[in-house]
Automatic annotation (TrEMBL):
One of its GO terms (biological process) is protein transport. Keywords: Cell membrane, Membrane, Protein transport, Transmembrane, Transmembrane helix, Transport. It is found in: Cell membrane. It is a single-pass membrane protein; Single-pass type II membrane protein. The lineage of its organism: Bacteria, Pseudomonadati, Gemmatimonadota, Gemmatimonadia, Gemmatimonadales. Belongs to the ExbD/TolR family. PANTHER family: EXBD MEMBRANE COMPONENT OF PMF-DRIVEN MACROMOLECULE IMPORT SYSTEM, TOL-PAL SYSTEM PROTEIN TOLR. InterPro entries: ExbD. The chain crosses the membrane at residues 24-46. One of its GO terms (molecular function) is transmembrane transporter activity. This is Biopolymer transport protein ExbD/TolR.
Length: 152
């Protein structure tokens, strides 16, 4: 009994094992199929409704920026062109040495990105603090913590 050796010149075959590669690629494909739709859909969140802690009376020096549902800007209740918002705010807030506060009131059906754009423009124009004004919920009474302590 002997060993048979082929004289045909045996060569080593180097074939890659593609099974692990296919497994990894399928897992990655499944992960991306699950993740991508959530990334492109965006966040659909309604802002919370609450009770105003304290009613804010409008004073003469307050600067109010209104945005209607079409995205048109109103500065101190006067309509302005959207392109001139930054220049108008810069003119107002450059003249002030303190109290660089802008109050923003926007329509509840307006896309939040439009409000964020206005806040960004205001920050570039020199506004230090931006306050967003909401409406008092019907049937609620706003009270600050100090008023509640004083009334007890």
């Amino acid at each position: 009994m002997g060993m048979s050796v082929s004289s045909g010149g045996s060569s080593v075959k180097a074939e890659p094992n593609v099974t692990p590669l296919v497994d990894v690629m399928l897992v990655l494909l499944i992960i991306f199929m699950v993740i991508i739709p959530t990334l492109t859909s965006g966040l659909n969140a309604a802002p919370p409704q609450g009770i105003n802690l304290k009613k804010h009376p409008e004073e003469d020096g307050d600067v109010l920026l209104g945005i209607d549902r079409k995205g048109v800007y109103y500065l101190n209740r006067q309509p302005i062109r959207n392109e001139t918002l930054e220049a108008n705010l810069k003119r107002i807030f450059d003249a002030r040495t303190e109290d660089k506060i802008l109050y923003v009131r926007a329509d509840k059906n307006l896309e939040y990105s439009k409000v964020q754009d206005a806040v960004d423009i205001a920050a570039k124009a020199g506004v230090r603090v931006t306050g967003l004004i909401s409406e008092q919920l019907p049937g609620t009474e706003g009270q600050s913590v100090e008023e509640k302590k004083g009334g007890s």
